[in-house]
């Protein structure tokens, strides 16, 4: 899911780069957060088959689950910054568009992280049950 969301964000960036619109201000937040999504997705995808040692995996999952708190705070700050920019600047300006990009990407990341956190907790519970 993270890979798909990141690729979608980069596709929107490429499309916006070819258009003469004030919404080009969305390119930096969409691009940066899209690359973050791709990095997360690729890391999870590459790491999953190599995890064999149960104790190490349980420890890793504890750290992963704990990190979701930090992600939520950062994503909420980005979402709030986006809303603030959208309220402070008129439509069709670069800063309004940047705010819109932050709002969109932070919203997507919050939803994806909520799903990922739920799956991580289920996986960690399964690891604990197999002790």
Structure description:
- This protein has 131 residues and is mostly helical.
- 82% of the residues lie in helices and 0% in strands.
- The chain contains four helices and no strands.
Please name the defining characteristics of this protein.
mainly alpha
Short description:
With about 130 residues, the chain is mainly α. About 80% of the residues lie in helices and about 0% in strands.
Number of beta strands: 0
Distance between the first and last residues' Cα: 29 Å
Helix run count: 4
| Strand-residue proportion | under 5%
Overall shape: it is: elongated
Mean pLDDT: 88
Helix content range of the residues, please? over 70%
Regarding quaternary structure, what we see is: single chain
Order of helices and strands: HHHH
Most strands sheet: none
- Secondary-structure-based class equals mainly alpha
Low-confidence segments, ≥5 residues, pLDDT <50? none
Q: Please state the CA-atom Rg, rounded to the nearest Å.
A: 17 Å
What's the layout of helices and strands?
Layout: H1 2-17, H2 27-47, H3 54-88, H4 94-129
Helix pairs in contact: 1-2, 2-4, 3-4
